[in-house]
Structures are given as structure tokens and as C-alpha cells.
């Protein structure tokens, strides 16, 4: 029996063998074309676990015959980065192509660690490929992000995952030597959570659970896998399932459930900045104008936990989570911007009324820019009816006040100002 895991044994070695990501690797895919041209930029792969970020980086290196240096942000520091860069510099004199430096979970690197990459990326000493499950806009410094092309990798589809299973059963030497019948696949897919690496691990676990002929059924998979499920896998499916349960508990105004899911994440080692970021989003999206202070509390929490750190940050998170859970809820601001964006996409750039255009030059004033504009502070109550919308959508309503005490006051104000124009 091989000591090499099935996931590693089945790792593709060629671009054509990579499953999924057809938007990047299909016949007209931008990444395929870059690889075929032999000229690739430094890049960051952003996507959920197990969709092929590491595999794709290795395949690119093999296709281009480039040296490959791999680091993990979990156990690497500035010294490791400098050693890798020095190694790349030393190879310049042997007419070798510059190496690919692959950094897994690059979002875990500190600012100083990311800073140490800039010079080598800028002068072409290395081609950087970073992999992250987090939005690089939040976790990668702007100087490094501006030097990299970001490629988004998608979840693998059911058919793509099943093609990996079939490939393993029919191409892996160890599995081919066994008599294995795949009778049911639903449990395999369920426990994989869209993660190809986890799927291969489950297949391997099942294959080792019995000798001789093996019939894979949902019951067999469930029995074998449930003995091996961890409390919380921050790099796998439960990372997304638990954060979903956490958000929905706060949205559903259940502080007890919300604190429980918070505890699950903290116990599992989840990044507290990730938790706080999702709370800030919820405060704006789900509480919104029903309690505008919620956004202030969530933002203060996000700043405080970075200042304090664990273990005390758990108390700050708990306080903010409870506050958000018991706050009144409204998604009116979220719906308003979605409605406005839909109108912009449908109508295009409608003409701006002349009265509210800027008129910094004499020519613009001669063209009636800013003419007839009425300055609100010159009128009683600091308000005067004026047309601020493009004529074509003059009476369109994007914001509909929610049913809560705060927004009922907003409705009364809007009705006082605009009478029947918007139907408030």
C-alpha cells in the first residue's frame, strides 16, 4: 500500500487533465492562453478549498518547465521568503527561467511578510502565485495586489466531482487492483462539500474500510466517514456551513444560537478578523436603518479585536454578536442599492438634470449647468422640492422604509418632504 495519499497520486500533471475552471482553462480561457504563450503574470488564485489552486500552480510550472518553490503561509516567515528569493537570484546565472514561488494561504501573511515579496515580483526575480480562500481585496496589501492578476476559481460541479471519482477508480493503480462498484454517490458528494481533495480522502477512506470486493453505497460512506468528522474544519466545507449558520442565527434574532456558532468557530481556530468582517456586513445588510448603531458596534468590534487579540477578543465578539442578534432588522438599504443598480444596468447612463450639474467654468454656465439650482439651506427647514433624478425615472422608488420604529419616522419625513411624488 502506498504512503502517498490518493489526492496526491491523482494530482494532474498537465493542463488538459485539470478538472473544472473552464472559464479560465477552456479553449478560450484567459489563463490557458497565458500559459500557452509562455508569458504569465504574477497571480493570485481566489476560491474555496479543494478546487485546484495548488494543483493549478504546479501544473503551470510543469507546463512552462519553470522551477517551483512552494511555501505555506501557516509555517513560513520572512526568512523563508528571503531564502526562496535568494535561491531564485542565484539561478539567474545559469540561464534558467525565473522560478514560480507558490504561497498557499497567502492571506495569512502579515503586511511585513507581503512587503518582502514586492521587490522580487517587481523585477521579475520570481513569478508569484498566491492561493487564498479569502477575498484578496481585504487580505493582500494593495502594493502586491496591483502587481498580480486575480483569478477566481469556482466550486466544482457534481459532474466534475464524479469525473474525479471515476478517474480515481479506473486510473489509480491501487484502486484498479480492487473490485470496487460505485452503486450510490450522493453521500460521497455530500461529505466532500465540493472539495476535490476531501472527496479523494473520502474515497480512500472507504477503500481502506474493507478488504476484497467493495460496494460503495450511501450507508457505507456515512458509517465510515462519521467516525472521522472533525468538530470544525476551517479549511473545508464546515468553514462555510458554520459561518452560514452564524449569520442566519443573528439575522433570525437568536443570540443563543449565534453565540454557540461563534464558539464553534473560535474553538476551531477560525480567523477572528474573518468573523468580524462578516458581522460588519450583516450589520449593514440585515439590520441597516432599523438600528444604524449596529454598524458602529460591528465596526468597533472589528477594530478592537485586532488591538486586543485572543483570548480576550472572544468577549468583544460575544458582546457584539448578542447586540446584532437582538437588534431590530431591516434590509431596506440593501434592497435600495440592488434596485438602483438594476435600474442603472437597464437604463444606462441617463442624462443628469442641468440644474444639479457642476459649473466650474464660464462655458458650462453659458450652457445652463447649475442654472435654477435651489440651495436647500436657504429655505425653511433646510428643504425645497427639487428634481434630482433623471427625467426618465423621475418618480422611481428605490428605497422603501422598513416596518420598524426608526424607519417609520423616516417614512413620515419623506412624506412631509415629497408628498405624493414617491408614494410615501
Q: CATH-wise, what's the superfamily of the largest domain?
A: P-loop containing nucleotide triphosphate hydrolases
End-to-end separation in angstroms reads 73 Å
Structural class: alpha/beta
Share in β-strands: 5-15%
How do the helices and strands follow one another from N- to C-terminus?
A: HHHEHEHEHHEHHEHHEHHEHHHHHHHHH
Q: What would you call the shape?
A: globular
- Main pleated-sheet profile: 5 strands, parallel
Helix fraction bin: 40-55%
Order of the strands making up the biggest sheet: 2-3-4-1-5
Mean pLDDT equals: 85
Number of helices: 22
The CATH architecture assignment of the largest domain turns out to be 3-Layer(aba) Sandwich
Low-confidence parts: none
Rg over CA atoms: 28 Å
Remind me, CATH topology of the largest domain? Rossmann fold
Kindly describe this structure.
It is a single chain. This protein has 424 residues and is an alpha/beta fold. It has 4 domains: 20-152, Rossmann fold (3-Layer(aba) Sandwich), CATH 3.40.50.300; 158-226, Helicase, Ruva Protein, domain 3 (Orthogonal Bundle); 237-326, Zinc Finger, Delta Prime, domain 3, CATH 1.20.272; 333-418, post-AAA+ oligomerization domain-like (Orthogonal Bundle), CATH 1.10.3710.10. The protein has 22 helices and 7 strands. It has helices spanning 6-9, 22-25, 30-37, 53-64, 78-90, 111-115, 118-122, 136-139, 142-145, 158-171, 173-176, 186-192, 196-207, 218-226, 237-251, 255-267, 272-287, 293-308, 313-326, 332-347, 362-366, 405-418, and strands at 43-46, 68-72, 100-104, 127-132, 149-152, 180-182, 214-216. The strands form 2 sheets. It has a 5-stranded parallel β-sheet with strand order 2-3-4-1-5, sandwiched between helices. A two-stranded parallel sheet has the order 6-7. Strand 2, helix 5 (78-90) and strand 3 (100-104) form a beta-alpha-beta unit. Helix 12 crosses helix 13 and helix 12 (186-192) runs parallel beside helix 14 (218-226). The longest helix is centred in the middle third of the chain and has 16 residues, at 272-287. 29% of the residues are buried.
Amino acid at each position: 500500500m502506498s504512503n502517498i495519499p490518493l489526492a496526491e497520486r491523482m494530482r494532474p500533471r498537465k493542463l488538459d487533465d485539470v478538472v473544472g475552471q473552464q472559464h479560465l482553462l477552456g479553449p478560450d480561457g484567459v489563463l490557458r492562453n497565458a500559459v500557452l504563450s509562455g508569458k504569465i503574470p504574477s497571480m493570485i488564485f481566489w476560491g474555496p478549498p479543494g478546487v485546484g489552486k495548488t494543483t493549478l500552480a504546479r501544473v503551470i510550472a510543469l507546463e512552462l518547465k519553470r522551477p517551483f518553490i512552494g511555501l505555506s503561509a501557516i509555517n513560513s516567515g520572512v526568512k523563508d521568503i528571503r531564502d526562496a528569493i535568494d535561491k531564485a537570484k542565484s539561478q539567474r546565472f545559469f540561464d534558467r527561467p525565473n522560478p514560480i514561488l507558490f504561497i498557499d494561504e497567502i492571506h495569512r501573511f502579515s503586511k511585513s511578510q507581503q512587503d518582502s515579496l514586492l521587490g522580487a515580483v517587481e523585477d521579475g526575480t520570481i513569478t508569484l502565485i498566491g492561493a487564498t480562500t479569502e477575498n484578496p481585496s481585504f487580505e493582500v496589501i494593495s502594493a502586491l495586489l496591483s502587481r498580480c492578476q486575480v483569478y477566481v476559481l469556482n466550486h466544482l460541479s457534481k459532474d466534475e466531482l464524479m469525473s474525479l471519482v471515476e478517474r480515481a477508480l479506473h486510473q489509480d493503480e491501487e484502486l484498479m487492483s480492487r473490485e470496487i462498484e460505485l452503486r450510490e454517490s450522493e453521500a460521497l458528494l455530500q461529505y466532500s462539500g465540493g472539495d476535490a481533495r476531501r472527496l479523494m480522502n473520502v474515497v480512500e477512506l472507504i477503500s481502506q474500510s474493507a478488504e476484497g470486493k467493495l460496494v460503495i453505497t450511501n450507508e457505507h460512506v456515512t458509517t465510515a466517514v462519521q467516525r472521522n468528522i472533525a468538530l470544525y474544519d476551517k479549511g473545508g466545507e464546515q468553514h462555510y456551513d458554520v459561518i452560514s449558520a452564524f449569520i442566519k442565527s443573528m439575522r433570525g434574532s437568536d443570540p443563543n444560537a449565534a453565540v454557540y456558532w461563534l464558539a464553534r468557530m473560535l474553538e476551531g481556530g477560525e480567523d477572528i478578523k474573518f468573523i468580524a468582517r462578516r458581522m460588519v456586513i450583516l450589520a449593514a445588510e440585515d439590520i441597516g436603518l432599523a438600528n444604524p448603531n449596529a454598524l458602529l458596534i460591528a465596526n468597533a468590534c472589528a477594530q478592537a479585536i485586532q488591538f486586543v487579540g485572543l483570548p480576550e477578543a472572544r468577549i468583544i465578539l460575544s458582546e457584539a454578536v448578542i447586540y446584532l442578534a437582538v437588534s431590530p432588522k431591516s434590509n431596506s438599504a440593501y434592497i435600495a442599492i440592488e434596485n438602483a443598480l438594476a435600474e442603472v444596468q437597464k437604463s444606462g447612463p441617463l442624462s443628469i438634470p442641468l440644474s444639479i450639474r457642476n459649473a466650474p467654468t464660464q462655458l458650462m454656465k453659458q450652457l445652463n449647468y447649475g442654472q435654477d439650482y435651489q440651495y436647500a439651506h436657504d429655505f425653511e427647514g433646510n428643504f425645497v422640492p427639487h428634481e434630482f433624478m433623471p427625467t426618465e425615472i423621475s418618480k422611481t422608488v428605490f428605497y422603501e422604509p422598513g416596518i420598524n420604529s426608526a424607519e417609520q419616522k423616516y417614512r413620515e419625513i419623506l412624506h412631509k418632504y415629497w408628498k405624493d411624488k414617491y408614494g410615501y
